[in-house]
Amino acid sequence: MASPTLITPSTSKSQPLIIPLKPKSSISAAATTTTHHYSRRREFLSLTASVLAPSWVLFPPAPALASSDEEYVKDTTEVIGKVRTTITMDKNDPNVAAAVAELRESSNSWVAKYRKEKSLLGRASFRDMYSALNAVSGHYISFGPTAPIPAKRKARILEEMATAEKALLRGR
């Protein structure tokens, strides 16, 4: 149980918890002059540095685009051809695993190269191509490189490839 002396208020005068700050007018004139001197020196040095610095430091070159439009069309057409040849291969063909490995490598490089291009994200050809590559890669990752693609999935992939190819021809 608490002692009665802790509960009763003290009769002594309590000290304020907040210590008042001295007004700013008491700052000496020497401190103001020194601060003013340093700010002028900073301005002078920054102006001098901006005049003497080479232009490539002040204005760095714009980041290079991953590719031109012609390169995008060429790469996309190549990947479409690889996808078509790979998914239409016979399941007993001994080269299926190597073809799937090559397709995965080329599709991964295509996606890595063009996914970060904001100018391509809205294109119909990019959208359809990305969807088809996702379906093909997902199938081979899940079921292995020698598993045949089901007829419905194959039809959808081939349809997306045809749509992407038409969009490429139209410049979309």
From TrEMBL:
GO terms for cellular component: chloroplast thylakoid lumen; photosystem II. Gene3D superfamilies: Photosystem II Pbs27. It comes from the Eukaryota. Keywords: Membrane, Thylakoid. The keyword Oxidoreductase does not apply. The keyword Membrane applies. It is found in: Membrane; Thylakoid. GO terms for biological process: photosystem II assembly; photosystem II repair. Coiled coil: none annotated. InterPro entries: PSII_Psb27, PSII_Psb27_sf. HAMAP family: PSII_Psb27. This is Photosystem II repair protein PSB27-H1, chloroplastic-like.
